[in-house]
Amino acid sequence: MNIIVCMKQTPDTETLIRLKDDKTDINREGVNYIINPYDEFSIEEAIRIKEKFGEGNVTLISIGNNVTEQLRKGIAMGADNAISIWDDSIEVWDSSIIAKILAKAIGQIPFDIVFCGRQAIDDDASQVGARVAALLNIPQVCVINKLEIADDKKTAVAHRMIEGGTEVLETSLPALFTSQKGLNEPRYPTISAIMKSKKKEIKNMSLADLGLNQNDVDKSAAKLKMTDMDLPLKRQAGKIIEMSDNAVETLVKLLKEEAKVI
Amino acid sequence: MSKKIWIIAEQRENNLKKVSFELLSKAQELAQKLDGELNAVLIGNNVSNLTAPLGHYGAQKVFLLEHPLLENYSTDGYLKVLYELIKEHNPDIILTGATTNGKDFMPALAAKLNVGLASEVIDMELDANNELIFKRPIYAGKSIIKVICTDSPKMATVRPNVLNLLPKDENRPAEVIKVNVQLSESDIRTKIKEVLKIVGATIDLTEADVIISGGRGVKGGEYFETLKELAGLLSGTIGASRAAVDAGWISHAFQVGQTGKVVSPNLYVACGMSGSIQHQAGMSSSKCIVGINKDPDAPIFKISDYGIVGDLFKIVPEIIEQVKKMKS
């Protein structure tokens, strides 16, 4: 089984978001980076599939300027190879560009399964997985929290979360899956695995290696243009109703008469 | 030439989702300003009874795509029929709900059309040059950006419950255009084996008007029954914090927050939860927030419209009593 995991480095969920003065990006000073949490589920699932079948190859692919640390963490968890793709011209905010680059890279490697996270927790676009599947012309099953690969490795059954329930879908392989919380509990790498991962070579790929030019991936190629970035309006703290005999009565009255929500 | 605005309506088991009407309401305003035509696309099997309500909410034409293989949603089925329809008619704007299905097929469709897609949009407006500007949150709502799509069709998935619903006009008919759908089983590479329903989940969190949510402070799965009783009285549903889900008290399907669902109900009652930054990411766009916590310094009070500092095990049953009294 050849399994590819697309991985993104994102700011930690605890990050306090401040904007740069020109409001084109967040202020990245002191920001702590992590593997996008949904991608961690992908890495874990890929390793589990490999372990179950006792054979296979897990390749991590990440687009980013300095993603070595996160790729090494994935290797320490149990991935076999890692590919880092970067060029300063890449417009990272554009899902269509990211998907195009990933599809080109994946197209160069034999694969049975591609994993992406259900979304990245920075741009929250939830687009790259489905776009990559469309570009590779393979079936997709998005937002999965359970996956079983058939013994003959030709099909898979995935549980996809939908409104009010779960859809159980069977798909032929190769296919692309996007990982949702609940798929598994990602492991912590052992100290010795972390040490060993530091010696592992990470393959760097350039645009030329992928048969792409800068004008395929730069701002001019972007399909979405950001015109403004701002912080949301802060919610104001409202009334604190003192605990007393009629506090709840007051609350229900306010909800009915003032807020008009019940 | 006048602009063609399309709404891809969503139905499940022959019920139209509210977000389809919310989209038509907003798109009426866009169509008016752009002097455009507002059309809806309806996909399913034996769903022609749903074309009339789409007209009532403003659709001038409804493209009706019916086929036995469209009875259930499938990525491949929807992609194929939508791609062909779009190629034939060249709409300028395509909007649908940021639901599980909308978020599944729209990025793939955008990739096939080689255009941009604004996802999880919370508002949209036309600027002075009639450029359509989409507003959407990033970093779990900790920042809001405005984006434009550079190519046509301009596509967006819009969150349920964020756009205002205009009153319907039952005298407004829609012209129904039956589309000849060509689809064979081999076109659909994924097969639904079964659908496991969550017991008691009658309204989806993202569409609920009222959510009664429980956190670590509810101390166990049993108390969600009490929250459910209150939710039932207010025609709402229950939600949960990550702590309650991780403790195994309730299914992840009910989790609100950065790694759960993003909701914007009219009323969100947060019972026994601190209101972490990750939880706030999922619920801070609620219209009215009520915080109930015994810790007066809990962050939830900083974003609550109304707060009661006290024991939720006393307060929640009392709310139930008061609401019952109010209703009788």
Q: Gyration radius of chain B, to the nearest Å?
A: 21 Å
What is the first-to-last residue Cα distance of chain B?
57 Å
| CATH homologous superfamily classification of chain A | HUPs
What is the count of distinct domains of chain A? 1
CATH class of the largest domain in chain B: Alpha Beta
Shape category of chain A = globular
- Percentage beta strand of chain A: 25-35%
N→C terminal distance of chain A:
55 Å
Q: How are the strands ordered across the major sheet of chain A?
A: 9-8-7-10-6-1-4-5-11
Quickly give the structural class of chain A: alpha/beta
Using the CA coordinates, give the radius of gyration of chain A.
Answer: 22 Å
Order of helices and strands of chain A: EEEHEHEHEHEEEEHEHEEH
The backbone outline of chain B, from C-alpha atoms, is: globular
Strand content of chain B: 25-35%
Taking the sheet with the most strands of chain A, its summary is: 9 strands, mixed
Structure classification of chain B? alpha/beta
Please mark out the parts of chain A with pLDDT under 50 across 5 or more consecutive residues, or reply none. Answer: none
Could you explain how this protein is built, in words?
The complex is a heterodimer of chains A (262) and B (328). Chain A is α/β, with parallel strands linked by helices. Chain A has a single domain (2-221), classed as Rossmann fold (3-Layer(aba) Sandwich). In chain A, 27% of the residues lie in helices and 28% in strands. Chain A has seven helices and 13 strands. Chain A has helices spanning 37-53, 68-77, 95-106, 128-136, 191-197, 214-217, 247-258, and strands at residues 2-7, 9-11, 33-35, 57-63, 81-85, 113-117, 140-149, 155-162, 165-172, 175-179, 203-205, 224-230, 239-241. Chain A has a nine-stranded mixed sheet, sandwiched between helices. Chain A has a two-stranded antiparallel ribbon with strand order 2-3. In chain A, strand 8 and strand 9 (165-172) form a beta hairpin. In chain A, helix 2 (68-77) packs across helix 5 and helix 3 crosses helix 4. The longest helix of chain A has 17 residues, at 37-53. Chain A starts with a strand and ends with a helix. The relative contact order of chain A is 0.17. The model of chain A has no long low-confidence stretch (mean pLDDT 95). By secondary structure, chain B is of the alpha/beta class. Chain B has two domains: 4-187, Rossmann fold (3-Layer(aba) Sandwich); 205-327, TPP-binding domain (Rossmann fold, 3-Layer(aba) Sandwich), CATH 3.40.50. In chain B, the strands form four sheets. Chain B has a seven-stranded parallel sheet. In chain B, strands 15-14-16-17-18 form a five-stranded parallel sheet. In chain B, a hairpin with a 5-residue loop joins strand 8 (123-126) and strand 9. The model of chain B has no long low-confidence stretch (mean pLDDT 95). Classes of the chains: A alpha/beta (262), B alpha/beta (328). Chains A and B meet through helix 3, helix 4, strand 7, strand 8 and strand 9 of A and helix 3, helix 4, strand 7, strand 9 and strand 10 of B. Strand 13 of chain A pairs parallel with strand 18 of chain B.
